[in-house]
Design a protein that fits this description.
The protein is an alpha/beta fold and 194 residues long. It folds into 2 domains: 115 residues, Oxidized Rhodanese, domain 1, CATH 3.40.250.10; 57 residues. Helix content is 44%, strand content 10%. It is built from 8 helices and 6 strands, in the order βαβαβαβαβααααβ. Strands 1, 2, 3, 4, 5 and 6 form a 6-stranded mixed beta sheet that branches. Helix 6 packs antiparallel against helix 7. The longest helix is centred in the last third of the chain and has 22 residues.
Length: 194
């Protein structure tokens, strides 16, 4: 994917049909372990975006002709993963439009694991809410300059919404309770028909 060029994309239903027909494809999920444990596409391999070594991934790839279908929750992290992979010379990357959420919304099969704790986005919402409320309370009762705290958190939310990048989510994902053992996921698959 060259600068300002959109990656090749596929809709979840179309991908599911290709896999049901036996067409080969490598499914790469770049979400956090906690998100993956809660629900993931059958056969997807988990490699969180912040742990993705694109060059090593390219070297370990058995068949370079098989497309790599990249998932995240809604598409932002998958786009960044594709950029990293293509920058490292890995070809055949395909963005799954709308990510795992679109797959779920389409009613396609998923594997549900055991989730330990709150989903990552709820943790982000709680953290931002606590910081913003604390800043507002301090601005009212201590000093007006504390109003910058909710202003900064609000701007951060707008930035995350516009870009799909949430630095707080990446930071929270590194906390011990968000490190879920998900076992060994296969790198290639042909999900069973349901």
């Amino acid at each position: 994917m060259k600068n300002n060029q959109s990656p090749i994309a596929i809709q979840p239903r179309e991908l599911h049909q290709l896999l049901r027909e036996g067409r080969p494809g490598q499914l790469l999920d770049v979400r956090t372990p906690g998100e993956f444990a809660a629900a993931h596409v059958p056969g997807a391999k988990l490699v969180p975006l912040d742990e993705l070594d694109a060059a090593a991934f390219g070297r370990e790839r058995a068949d370079k002709r098989i497309p790599i279908y990249v998932f995240c929750q809604s598409g932002g992290r998958a786009r960044r993963a594709i950029e990293k992979l293509e920058h490292a010379g890995v070809s055949g990357c395909v963005l799954v439009t709308g990510g795992t959420q679109a797959w779920l919304d389409a009613g396609l099969p998923v594997n549900h694991g055991e989730s330990h704790g709150l989903p990552l986005m709820r943790q982000v919402q709680i953290t931002i809410g606590v910081i913003s409320a604390t800043g507002a309370a301090l601005a009212i009762w201590v000093h007006p300059k504390f109003a910058f705290i909710p202003l900064i958190t609000g701007c951060g939310l707008v930035f995350a919404g516009l870009t799909g990048f949430c630095g707080l989510a990446l930071l929270l994902a590194k906390l011990p309770w968000n490190k879920t053992a998900v076992g060994n996921s296969p790198s290639c698959c042909t999900p069973e028909s349901k």
